[in-house]
Amino acid sequence: MKRPRWLRRPWQAALAGVLAGVLLAGVAAYAAIGAFIWWHAETLLAHPPQRPADAALVLGSRAYLDGKPHPCLAGRVDTAVAMARTGLVRQLAFSGGVDSEDGRTEATAMKERAVTAGFAGPMLLEPASTSTRLNLSLSRPLLLAAGVRSVVIVSEPFHLWRIERLVKMSGFDRSFDVQYAAAPTSCWNALGPLSKGALREPAAIVNNAFRGFLF
User: Fold this and answer.
1) Which of 37, 67, 190, 196 is the most exposed place for a label (fewest CB within 10 A)?
2) Where would I find the DUF218 domain in this sequence (predicted)?
């Protein structure tokens, strides 16, 4: 009786088993990171900022989708504008450079959204950053020059754990009293941890951790 092919070459079966194990471990790790992000996001949504701050720093993402303001970014700006209306923050700062997906400057798009929403207070623009880490490093001198000493960082819920780590590792929190505001955008409310950004965030965390930015 002829033996199956995999029995004739047992090393191939062993290699396939190892690769399958590695793949399953990777999927499990990715899912675990995603679950932790979701838990942390829900915690921040339940505990919004309480202390008045000099400014809200809104971090950018894709500015437009199908020719219209992207609802994920619009929700971040709307959250900052709402905080300004209640007196929690005095001014708004928008950080984000040219987005490769739509060719628009995120900071400018956020300013336009804030004006449309009725905000008429002072605004700072940081239009050059292309990553979360650069959002913080390039915004710091602008905020300091404007006399800002306390900041509420605004982003979508899934994004904030990585932001917190980057703030600590970069020393951003040594320059400012920092709070965090999770923006309940329509993207998050519709899909939560299954939104596009949330699904990509574990990969960003692994990438940043591997490069020594988080720990």
Assistant:
1) 67
2) 54-190
- Would strands 150-155 and 64-65 be described as parallel, antiparallel, or unpaired? unpaired
* pLDDT at 128 (0 to 100): 97
Question: Is 9 among the domain residues?
Answer: no
| Number of structural domains found in the chain | 1
**Domain ranges, residue 138:** 44-210
Q: Are 56 and 86 in contact (CB under 8 A)?
A: no
Lowest-confidence segment of 7-21, 115-129, 140-154 by average pLDDT: 7-21
DSSP state of 194: G
121: enclosing H helix or E strand: none
- 196-210 vs 10-46: helix axis angle to the nearest 10? 110
Mean pLDDT score, 130-153: 97
Phi, psi of 15 (to 5 degrees): -65, -40
Those residues whose C-beta lies under 8 Å from the C-beta of residue 138, and which sit 6 or more positions away, are: 95, 126, 128, 129
Query: Is residue 1 over pLDDT 60?
Result: no
